[in-house]
Write a structure and sequence with these properties.
By secondary structure, the chain is mostly beta strands. The protein contains 4 helices and 34 strands. The chain is globular and about 70 Å long. The N terminus is likely disordered.
Length: about 675
Amino acid sequence: MQTMLFKQAAITLIVFSLDTSSIYAQNAPKNIQLPGVKITAPTTSSAESTGFKADMIIHRDRLRQKREANLGDTLAHELGVTSSSFGPGSGRPIIRGQDGERVRVMENSMGTGDVSVISPDHAVATETLNATRIEILRGPSTLLYGSGVSGGVVNVLNDRIPDRLFKTPQANFEGRFNSALEERSGVLTASGSKGQVSWNIEGMKRKTNDIHIPGRANPNDPESEIGLVRNSAIDSSNLSAGSAYIGERGFVGMSISRLENFYGIPGPEGAKIDMGQTRYGLAGDLDNPLKGFLQLRTRFTYNDYQHKELEQSGEIGSRFKNDELEGRAELTHVPVAQWQGIMGVQLQHRNFTAKGEEAFVPTSLSQSAGIFMVEKRNWQQWQFEIGGRFEHSNHNPRVAMLQTRNFNLYSVSAGAAWKFIEGYQLDLIATRGQRAPNTVALFADGVHIATNTFEQGNSTLNKETSNNFDVALQKTTGRITGRVNLFYNHINDYIFQQSRDSNNDGVADRVDDEGIVEINGPFLVQDFSQTRARFYGLEAEANIALLPDTVNLRLFTDTVYGKLKDNGNIPRITPQRFGFDLNFTQNKWQANFNLTRVVQQDRVAVLETETPGYTLMNTEIGYHMKLTQSVNYMLFLQGRNLLDSDIRMHTSFLKDAAPMAGRAIIGGIRGVF
C-alpha cells in the first residue's frame, strides 16, 4: 500500500518537472509561506494574523460551484476531505480519515455550539449559503483553536460583524433551484455605514423535497423505494443582524443570529429533527494596545441550541439542549529576536442536556481553559513556525454513579519551509496533540437510533495522543503548478467503537432497546475502546495553464489508509479518488467541467460491507453582466451527476439506505449592488 502512495507521488512529480522554466533562477526571497493562514481580507480569522497561507481557502465563487445543503457535502470533494453524509439535512467534514472532535468546525473562528459530534444525524449549526469563504487549516495554526484536532480545522467565515466602514450601502443576493432536491433557496446580505457605525443584515431560506435518485434507495431490499429517498426533505432559515463602531485603531461590534432547520432522517422510521439555535457574538480588535504588541483581538459567543427528535407519529422521542459560552483573546507581538506571532487564551463552558427515551448520553457540564502561542521566523531561504498549547478540560456528568473526569492536554507543533529553488518549496511539519474523550465516549449508555446501535461508554478512557507528520512539495510558478502532500498520523490510545462479542463466537452481540441480548435484536452493541492506530496517505494536484488566463486544467488525486494496532482496517475510511477539472474564463463567460472517479472501497473493517465505486460528472456555465459601475449580476447553470451514477458514500452510516442525489440541473442568479 505504501508503494502505491509513492508511485502516485512520483507521477505527480513528473508532471511538475515538465515545466523547468524556473529551475535555474536565483535564490528564493525570504518571504516563504507555510501551510498556516495568510490574510486576504479585513481581519476576520485569528489565524490570518499569523501571516501564513492557508492549506485551503474556498472563496465565494467556488462555493457556488460546490454548494450542497450541508457543510460536509459542500466540502466533500476537496482534497483530503469527505463527508459523514447522513442525508441532505446533515453532514460533517471528515479530513484525512479523522472525524468528530478530531475536526473542529467553527464559524468566524468560534465554535458552532451544536451537538453534531454526538451523532451523524445532528446537523452542523452553520450555513454555507451566506459564507464569504471557508478555510481548511492544518499544521501549527490549528493550535490557536483547540487541542487534539488531528484532522484539522474548518472555519466558515461571513460578515455578520462588520469591521470596516462602507462608502455606500451594498448588498449581495443569490437565488437557486436544484431539480434533484426540488430545492428553492435564496440569500440576501446588506451592509452599510452611518458615521462611525457599520451594520450588516442577512437572511437565508432553503426548502427542498425528498431527493431523486437513479435506482432503489436500498439495493439489498427488493421492496425499497425506487427513484426517491423518502423523508429526506429540508426546511431551513437563517436571520442575523450585526453592528460595529469603527475607530481609527480598531472596532468593537456585536451580532445576533437565529438558525432554524427542520429535516428528515432517511429511513423507514420516518424520524425528523426540529433544530433551532440563537447565537450572540461580540468582537473587537485594537491596534497597538500595549507597548510591544501590534494588535489585540477578542471574541465572545453564546449559543443557545436545542433540537427535538420527532417520531413518525409526530411525538417527541428526545430533546437535546446545549448552552455554550466561548471566549478568546489574542495578542500579536512585535518581532522578538526575529520571531513574530500570536499568544492567547481560550475559555469554554458547555451545559448539555438530553432527555427522552432515546437520550443515550447523560446531562453533563463541560469546561475547558487553554493558553496557546504560535510563532514564525524567516531565515534566508527558510521559514520556521512553532506552536504550543496547554489546555485543561473536565466533564462533569449529572449522574450520581458517574465521576467527573479531568484532563491536562499538551500539544506542540513545528514546521519548516525551504524554498530551495525559485518556484519550488519543501514543507516539513510535525505536530503532537492530545485530545480528551468527549461525553459520548465516556458516558453513553443506551440505544442510538440513528446508527441502529446500543452504545456503551467507558468512563475510564485515557486522553488520546496523535503524532502527525507532513511532507509537502510545492511548485508555485510557471504554467504548471501544484503540490504533493504525504502524511502519516500515529495515534496512541485511539478512541473508537468496537462491536461486542461476549461469547467469542465471532458474531457481534445484538440487543433489544433495553440492552437485553437477542440473537436477532435490532441494535448492534458498540463499546468505546482504545488502541493504537495509524492513518497515512497522499494528496496531489497539478494545475496546467493550457491557455494562460483562459483555459486551465487541474489534475488531482487523494487517498487515505486507516489501520488499527492489529492491522485491521478502521471503518468508514474514504476510498481513493482521482479526476480532473477543466476551467474556461473569457470576457463575461466562465465554464467548468469536472470528472471524478471514486474507486470501490474494499479495505473494510470487520462486519463492514464494501462500497462500489462511481464516476461523478459535473459542469457549470456562467455569464456575468455589469449593469452599472456598482451593479453586477451573474447567471449560472450547473449539471450535477450528469451520468446519473448511484453514489454511495462509504463514510456514511446510511450508504445502503440513502444514496446521494441523481442527475440534477441547478440554475440561479447572483448579484452585487
